[in-house]
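Practice problem: predict the structure.
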Amino acid sequence: MKNLIQFLGIAMAVFVFNACQQGTPSTANVQLKTLEDSIIYGLGAYNVDILMEQFQVENPDLAIAYKGMKDQLEKKALFTPEEFNTIAQTFLTKQMEAAALGNEDKGKKFLEEKCQAPGRSHIAQRLAI
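Answer:
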């Protein structure tokens, strides 16, 4: 997780540095003219993958992401990397708990259906569902 935070921090700093030099970022006419442009674009693209895959965040508010990057570049971030790590761990824990609860409900339903099948009444007695 620490490496992920460092990677995201570097990616955001590079992006914001480039965006701040050009004023407010606009996506209308983005052209990848240099290797640095390609790196910045790639970091943005793959950070979204991380948000969607690891944190399962869909439709992230890019204005908030931009503010976080800009604040970090200006050394005015709302929290430290350690505080972000705690926030991220809490977020991931809640997601895992929600998924586990859903799986538990599905498991109970499955067992109830199987226990009601003809000739399976002994299963319900043993499982005590």
